[in-house]
Specification:
Layout: E1 8-9, E2 14-16, E3 21-27, E4 33-39, E5 42-47, E6 52-58, E7 60-64, E8 72-75, E9 78-82, E10 87-92, E11 96-101
Antiparallel strand pairs: 1-3, 2-3, 3-4, 4-11, 5-10, 6-9, 6-11, 7-8, 7-10
Catalytic activity: adenosine + phosphate = alpha-D-ribose 1-phosphate + adenine; guanosine + phosphate = alpha-D-ribose 1-phosphate + guanine; xanthosine + phosphate = alpha-D-ribose 1-phosphate + xanthine; uridine + phosphate = alpha-D-ribose 1-phosphate + uracil
GO molecular function: guanosine phosphorylase activity; purine-nucleoside phosphorylase activity; thymidine phosphorylase activity; uridine phosphorylase activity
Keywords: Glycosyltransferase, Transferase
Length: 106
């Protein structure tokens, strides 16, 4: 899906790592919550409360998912899932555009 229709956008940005990672919260008509954001080059670690689906829309990066022995290389588009109550690491090489959704059951 390339766009969201009938959605509510939170005006205030979520800002992490001194502004190198930003996102805006969006609530869809069916109540699903997503964030749309940009990550600048750097190394980051994030924690999850619930499960997350991360859709990389563009960028060059690698991700280390919980329990994985090796990094997943991404150049362009990719989708990956992160379990709830876990941590994952990202190394961003180019400006990366992403959409993160928070499904109730993954």
């Amino acid at each position: 899906m390339s766009q969201f229709n009938n959605a509510t956008v939170q005006k205030q940005a979520n800002i992490y790592y001194d502004g190198k990672v930003t996102s805006r919260a969006v609530t869809l008509e069916d109540g699903l919550k997503v964030t749309l954001g940009i990550m600048l080059p750097g190394v980051y670690e994030f924690g999850t409360e619930g499960p997350e689906t991360m859709e990389i829309l563009s960028g060059k990066l690698k991700v280390l998912l919980p329990g994985a022995d090796s990094w997943l290389d991404i150049d362009g588009t990719e989708t990956f899932h992160v379990p709830g109550n876990s941590k994952f690491s990202l190394e961003i090489f180019t400006v990366t555009d992403y959409c993160c959704s928070y499904p109730k059951n993954l």
